[in-house]
């Protein structure tokens, strides 16, 4: 699952990272937040084709706007577990195929209560292929004919197969609850902390506080989302007081902001996984010796230090460090130039192609380093630059080795969308391993949390051992906010708290 | 002259057709399509196919082009594939901003170019001339983005006199005069050096011309000699460069638009190409080509008007 500058999906830290996250907080102590005012938040946006449909969220800005106006039944926590939100509770039957969900007392902005039929309508709409919804894969397993509203505040969802991790879908971005029958989002009606006021596609979107919000009215009077594509323009606008929140800041700009009293830097550590995918189904990386040589030839410490500018850490060829189900016991892979050289010599390969781009700001520097590191093990890397707007579509088809990045997602979701043999038409590595499919299915079907963790851990370990998705680094996610802003922290994108302004204030 | 001007217009129409076909062909060679770009990298192949069908992208590209041409013949630029809205709506809001930026830049640029070029040309080699040449050369040599960052750091972040960006504006809506000061300053700075030097050289040559010396010997007032004879002849050689400058300004100024979050034609065109939104790309290409043709035609006519004996259309 790749992520471009536009739709990077990030998030999550493990329990160990929570302390770090807390250290990045800018709210908390200091008494009650100041009420009133307008917070202006700048993101990269999608241009004229933008809509406010909360089920189609190709950009970060789309996610943030949806979060302001709508609610999800669950919330993705920092370790990518899911806890109830608009849902009061959820309970499975013994098989994990029948889920009973009870809703909280809440209402939409037009005064209508949020009912079980709204939830069923929403999930049916997401699962409908015609919607092309971002979270469609998480809801297609629902048997809608068998699912039903028990009463206004209770529903029963029936799945086609056992899935004890189904509630994770309820906290996903793109699963926001809309009123039954909604087909137009020109003036969206949700149940979230802010009511829609106005929107210009490719331009600003304005929201006003929802005084009747079930979780308490926000401190802010108004929330405005502004599209500012250029990162230096976001930094300039923040420092000159034109905006109060600048999303997606580079490490170099973070240093500038950190030394300026007008701004604060909110950092989410370990938020973006940096991949160096190789194709298993074609030369030259169909040779396992060459794959092994590649991962032994990488100097990950140097990559984290130089390409990530010290705002990151070395990767260990497994997605999800710090997240629930990540197998911490697997040793960190380290550089072994002699062994890598020997493997390259055995394979007989001397030249490889490396596809790269500017989708992530760290890639140009990482490309230079990796080319040099591969040269040290006897491989000449020919670099192919791919433009950002078609980067992922291109490398999916044409590259034999290429960069990619993925934000934080539940580990089992990442496995399902990138590693399952049944999803291979869409995979970057074309890695086929039926055992991964089996372990994933076992994890979903097993009601025991320990067994589930073991199954997912085993799947990740296989991915590590078989070099299915090499990860050279894990980068931080950085946001700049105005010095007066309170109630925000360095959360990773995709989590419930990231870009959530319900508790933010201007003082 | 009228017949020649008519030929130029006819040629211009042919150029527009050629540009339209050329852009269409080039666009079809670009990898990816609107459905892939709109849905983002996480979309499944099935979702992309569904959206392709919804957007009509599963039809042959030549059929799409034929539709577009058919609409154009009836004065309809068509609808954006990505948004479904009329193309003129998408371009219209950006056009106003770009025209305002270009006009302001020209209004500031022209007097500066004339004054600096005339002074330098009348006093070649003087300390002031050297200073003007050095300063305008430096201004021209500094890239837009670097100058932009410097000016923002100084006037917006350090002194707080001007806004750093135009964030939140849509076209001309919400735009204030202070937001345009730094963008216009960068646009002027970039072009000033080149144009002022050309005018300076033109003035030096015109000033030394035999007919100008003759006019002075006849006792014509110096002011009249300068404004009626030296300046027009000195300006003509730089008119084509000036036309290119205006053409560039009207075509959108991408770096300045990005630096200041100004939603003008430049960023709109790039977005349309990135989205592979064929009708919008075609409309931009036509607009830019038409601008180029018209601006150059006006420059030619102006040259002919200023120095009729020196210019043939």
TrEMBL record, chain A:
Species per Swiss-Prot/TrEMBL record = Pseudonocardia benzenivorans
Q: Which Gene3D superfamilies match?
A: Dipeptide-binding Protein, Domain 3, Periplasmic binding protein-like II
Keywords linked to the UniProt accession: Signal
PANTHER family, sorted: MONOACYL PHOSPHATIDYLINOSITOL TETRAMANNOSIDE-BINDING PROTEIN LPQW-RELATED (PTHR30290:SF65), PERIPLASMIC BINDING COMPONENT OF ABC TRANSPORTER (PTHR30290)
Tell me, what's a Pfam family for it? SBP_bac_5
Q: Where is the signal peptide?
A: 1-25
Q: What is this protein called?
A: ABC transporter substrate-binding protein
Q: Tell me which residues make up the Solute-binding protein family domain.
A: 83-409
**Keyword check for Signal:** yes
The domain of life for this entry's organism is Bacteria
- InterPro entries membership: Peptide/Ni-bd (IPR030678), SBP_5 (IPR039424), SBP_5_dom (IPR000914), TAT_signal (IPR006311)
């Amino acid at each position: 699952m790749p992520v471009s500058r536009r739709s990077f999906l990030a998030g999550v830290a493990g329990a160990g990272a929570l302390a770090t996250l807390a250290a990045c907080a800018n709210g908390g102590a200091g008494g009650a937040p100041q009420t009133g005012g307008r917070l202006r938040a700048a993101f990269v946006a999608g241009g004229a084709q933008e809509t406010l449909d909360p089920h189609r969220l190709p950009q970060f800005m789309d996610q943030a706007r949806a979060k302001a106006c709508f609610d999800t039944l669950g919330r993705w926590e920092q370790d990518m577990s899911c806890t109830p939100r608009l849902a009061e509770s959820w309970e499975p039957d013994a098989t994990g195929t029948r889920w009973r969900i009870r809703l909280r007392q809440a209402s939409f902005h037009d005064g209508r209560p949020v009912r079980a039929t709204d939830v069923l309508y929403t999930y049916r709409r997401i699962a409908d292929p015609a919607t092309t919804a971002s979270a469609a894969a998480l809801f297609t397993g629902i048997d809608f004919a068998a699912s039903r509203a028990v009463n206004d505040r209770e529903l029963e969802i029936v799945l086609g197969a056992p899935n004890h991790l189904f509630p994770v879908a309820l906290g996903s971005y793109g699963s926001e609850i809309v009123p039954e029958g909604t087909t137009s989002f020109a003036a969206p009606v949700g149940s979230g902390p802010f009511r829609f006021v106005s929107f210009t596609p490719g331009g600003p979107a304005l929201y006003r506080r929802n005084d009747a919000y079930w979780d308490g009215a926000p401190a802010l009077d108004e929330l405005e989302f502004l599209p500012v594509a250029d990162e230096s323009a976001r930094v300039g606008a923040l420092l000159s007081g034109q905006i109060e929140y600048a999303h997606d800041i580079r490490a170099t700009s973070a240093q500038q902001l950190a030394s300026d009293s007008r701004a604060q830097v909110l950092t989410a550590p370990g938020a973006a996984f940096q991949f160096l995918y190789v194709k298993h189904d074609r030369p030259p990386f169909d040779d396992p010796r060459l794959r092994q040589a590649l991962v032994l030839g990488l100097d990950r410490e140097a990559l984290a230090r130089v390409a990530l500018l010290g705002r990151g850490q070395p990767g260990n060829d497994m997605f999800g460090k710090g997240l629930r189900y990540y197998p911490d016991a697997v040793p960190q892979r380290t550089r072994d130039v002699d062994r890598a050289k020997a493997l390259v010599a055995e394979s007989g390969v001397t030249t490889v192609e490396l596809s790269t781009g500017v989708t992530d700001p760290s890639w140009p520097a990482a490309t230079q380093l990796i080319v040099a590191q591969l040269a040290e093990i006897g491989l000449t890397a020919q670099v192919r630059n791919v433009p950002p707007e078609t980067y992922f579509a291109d490398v999916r088809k044409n590259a034999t080795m290429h960069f990619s990045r993925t934000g934080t997602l539940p580990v089992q979701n990442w496995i399902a969308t990138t590693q399952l043999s049944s999803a291979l038409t869409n995979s970057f590595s074309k890695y086929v391993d039926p055992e991964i499919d089996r372990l994933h299915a076992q994890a979903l079907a097993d009601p025991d949390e320990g067994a589930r963790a073991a199954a997912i851990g085993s799947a990740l370990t296989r991915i590590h051992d078989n070099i299915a998705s090499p990860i050279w680094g894990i980068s931080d996610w950085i946001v700049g906010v105005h010095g007066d802003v309170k109630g925000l922290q360095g959360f990773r994108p995709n989590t419930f708290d990231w870009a959530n302004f319900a508790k933010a204030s201007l003082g | 002259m009228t017949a020649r001007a008519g030929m130029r217009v006819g040629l211009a129409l042919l150029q527009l057709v050629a540009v339209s076909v050329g852009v269409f062909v080039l666009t079809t060679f670009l990898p990816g399509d609107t459905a892939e770009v709109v849905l983002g990298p996480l979309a499944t192949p099935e979702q992309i196919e569904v959206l392709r069908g919804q957007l009509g992208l599963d039809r042959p590209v030549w059929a799409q082009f034929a539709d577009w041409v058919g609409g154009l013949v009836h004065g309809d630029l068509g609808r954006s594939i990505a948004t479904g809205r009329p193309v003129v709506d998408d371009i219209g809001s950006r056009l106003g901003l770009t025209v305002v930026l270009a006009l302001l830049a020209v209004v500031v640029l022209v007097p500066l170019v004339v004054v600096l070029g005339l002074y330098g040309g009348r006093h070649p080699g003087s300390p002031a001339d050297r200073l003007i040449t050095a300063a305008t050369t430096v201004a021209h040599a500094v890239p837009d983005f670097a100058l932009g960052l410097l000016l923002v750091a100084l006037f917006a972040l350090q002194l707080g006199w001007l806004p750093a960006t135009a964030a939140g504006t849509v076209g001309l809506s919400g735009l204030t005069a202070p937001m345009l000061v730094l963008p216009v300053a960068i646009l002027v700075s970039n072009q000033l050096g080149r144009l002022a030097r050309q005018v300076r050289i033109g003035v030096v040559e015109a000033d030394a011309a035999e007919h100008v010396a003759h006019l002075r010997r006849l006792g014509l007032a110096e002011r009249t000699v300068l404004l009626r004879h030296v300046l027009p002849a000195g300006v003509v050689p730089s008119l084509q460069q000036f036309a290119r400058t205006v053409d560039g300004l009207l075509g959108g100024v991408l770096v300045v638009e990005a630096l200041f979050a100004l939603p003008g034609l430049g960023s709109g065109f790039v977005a349309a190409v990135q989205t592979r939104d064929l009708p919008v790309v075609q409309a931009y290409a036509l607009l830019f080509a038409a601008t180029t043709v018209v601006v150059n035609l006006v420059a030619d006519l102006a040259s002919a008007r200023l120095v009729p004996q020196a210019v043939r259309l």
